[in-house]
């Protein structure tokens, strides 16, 4: 590895230490359905978002709720203290397309229709409200 690459890699690692995040990979729902749920909580305070997710009737909401709890736990572990109400918020949350299972379904007249079973990856970053004011 060249010196320039090593230096930039070290900078990325240092920046990553500051951030508390959780990643959910290969969720077997389409990215579009997951984005409906993610858009409900983007930018919210975490405990308010947990309430919204708990009472949402979307199937993907349970998975995002579990991911948010994981991100909160990661933040608590890094900062060695418990999260308080009104302190944390969802800084960024994104949904990317994952791998796709391709299947064929029989169709009339000997044809076959393609079925695409989509999956997605969700990345959630949690940050304190105070850090935005300090910068």
């Amino acid at each position: 590895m060249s010196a320039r690459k090593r230096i930039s890699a070290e900078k990325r690692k240092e920046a990553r230490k500051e951030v508390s995040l959780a990643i959910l990979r290969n969720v077997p729902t389409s990215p579009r359905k997951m984005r409906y749920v993610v858009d409900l909580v983007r930018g919210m305070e975490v405990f308010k978002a947990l309430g919204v997710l708990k009472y949402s009737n979307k199937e993907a909401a349970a998975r995002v709720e579990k991911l948010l709890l994981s991100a909160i736990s990661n933040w608590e572990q890094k900062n060695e203290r418990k999260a308080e109400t009104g302190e944390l918020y969802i800084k960024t949350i994104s949904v990317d397309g994952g791998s796709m299972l391709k299947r064929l379904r029989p169709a009339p007249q000997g044809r076959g229709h393609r079925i695409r079973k989509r999956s997605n990856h969700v990345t959630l970053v949690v940050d304190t409200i105070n850090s935005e004011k300090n910068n």
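Residues 21-134 form a domain with the Ribosomal Protein L22; Chain A fold (CATH 3.90.470.10). Strands lie at 20-27, 88-106, 112-128.
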